[in-house]
Amino acid sequence: MCGRAIYQELCVYEKVINMTKVIWFNSDTFLHEDYQRLGIQFSLASPVRDGCVNMCHQWVLCRDFLADAVRAQVTGKKIELYGFCFDPEHNPAIDLSNTRVLVAMDKNPDQLKKYVHSGLRLIRYFERYIRVRKTTLEEVDPAKSGRSAVFLFTGSYVWIRSPFMLSLYTYLIRLGAHDIKFNSSAELKKALTGLAKTKLDSDTAFAKESEDLFKILRLRTRVVGRGSKVHPLYKKAVPIKRFHHNSG
């Protein structure tokens, strides 16, 4: 398949007729998070039941909280860090058979729509690269969410079973804000290298590691684990702050 055809395939957006409904997680807890220039927020979601998913925890800007939540569910132990809390006995259970990520912004719904579609292209490129089921994207009704627009990404379990892969998945979503155009690995690497030179924020700074990223994904069993089991790092007995800052 030629480069242009691949790019067009990655851009395909399925119109969802039966929109998934979301049961929102209501929390006004203040989180101590680093400044995020784009203001894109995330939350993990539960398995679908009767056409609905549960939002499993409050909205977060810091993507590391997502892995913290998965760790809490995997270990069965409540975690509290920088104002964020996930209690397996009270929070809705996260879907570990798929990767379900809700994405939102307080304002600018049209801008978010552009971001998530661009992010979807990046995710699908890497899914093609590592040969896993492609992610789907749908816009959900934001009513009662407190946000102007909300989208639901649903992908392979491969992304959520490892802290590194979950961090990469949400990083690619946020990287969509830069609307990267590419038709091949070489063009993508070149675009990411150029983006890194802009030094706009931490996301663009991470882009300079693109060559290492491709190398890591070629050896993905080391960061994903084997089969459908969660990565041992989720269960490793390390302090939550150390896990939060070093696992993704």
Your description of this structure?
By secondary structure, the protein is an alpha+beta fold. The protein has a domain at 3-11 and 20-181. The chain contains nine helices and eight strands. The chain has helices at 3-10, 64-75, 109-130, 163-175, 185-196, 202-206, 210-218, 221-224, 240-246; strands at 21-23, 41-44, 52-54, 79-81, 84-86, 98-105, 136-140, 149-156. The strands form three sheets. It has a four-stranded antiparallel beta sheet, with helices on one face. The longest helix is centred in the middle third of the chain and has 22 residues, at 109-130. The chain is globular. The protein starts with a helix and ends with a helix.
Task: Report a brief summary of the structure.
The protein is α+β, with helices and mostly antiparallel strands.
Number of strands: 8
Kindly report how far apart the N and C termini lie: 33 Å
Could you give a short account of the major beta sheet? 4 strands, antiparallel
* DSSP strand content: 5-15%
Number of helices: 9
The parts where pLDDT drops under 50 for at least 5 residues are: 1-8, 12-17
Shape: globular
Q: Can you write the helix and strand succession as a string?
A: HEEEHEEEHEEHHHHHH
* Strand arrangement, major sheet: 2-6-8-7
Rg over alpha carbons: 17 Å
Helix/strand class:
alpha+beta
Helix content: 25-40%
Q: Average the pLDDT over all residues and give the rounded result.
A: 84
